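Hello,

Following up on my earlier ticket. Below are the four sequence lines again, exactly as submitted.
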Amino acid sequence: MAENSSDICREQCFHPDTVERVSCAMASREDLLAVAELFKALGEGRRMSILNALLRSELCVCDLTLILNMSQSAVSHQLRVLRGARIVKSRKEGKNVYYSLDDRHISMLIETGFEHVREERGDEL
Amino acid sequence: MAENSSDICREQCFHPDTVERVSCAMASREDLLAVAELFKALGEGRRMSILNALLRSELCVCDLTLILNMSQSAVSHQLRVLRGARIVKSRKEGKNVYYSLDDRHISMLIETGFEHVREERGDEL
DNA sequence: TATTTATATGAACCTATGAACATATATTAA
DNA sequence: TTAATATATGTTCATAGGTTCATATAAATA
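Thanks for your patience. The regenerated structure is below:
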């Protein structure tokens, strides 16, 4: 996977010092993959609606099925993904399991995401 | 796709006023999908490394192929996804096309993502 | 203990998507 | 105009991931 650069940029089309500087500042492969996994888990319509709901209040699985009109199975599967990515945390109380957003980072991510797309939409006018 | 709730929560296992309140506060389907698309585009390892590089500096495609050791085709394909999601913007100068992050929201999202996964890692100790 | 209820999980199916290859477009230079 | 270079795109293939259905687990209740 190393010989891609051999047939491009034969002439000095690039910027050696910038390339050097940026290369040195790159995050670790581990962190990069972890962040990508985090965003991947956030990047699905149903999961985002679950999170949008959890932005307002802690909710049990049953509440979510009603709010989002999804099957219990589908909700549960998606919650598993969100739990695995440490986007939500859960708390058991009797027969019910209550879910909420993991921490402030998560709510900030979601809110910033909404801000971004809403601003974009404004730009389009 | 509507009859999922009919066979669950027959008894009042849920919280009617919370469900009502949260239901009313839900974002539009349009916004939800847009945000999900945004995060989906952020949620891939290669793309995240492109973005991590762009966090430091505006770069042309050729710079990126060198920094990330990816084929030109792969870089271009991923840049297309990022452009489509309005995560990066481009500027043409002669034969080169320079890419940079779209706006402050994007850098904030990426930085918050890194903070989150690094904090998590600390928690595991 | 037996049953009901709330949630979780496994498997099968289908669609979406990343990688790699070849090729197309656009800009500069000869 | 022709050739070379930088970037973009179309296609094919393999795989990841979401949904549903069926079932398993766990807690409450009879």
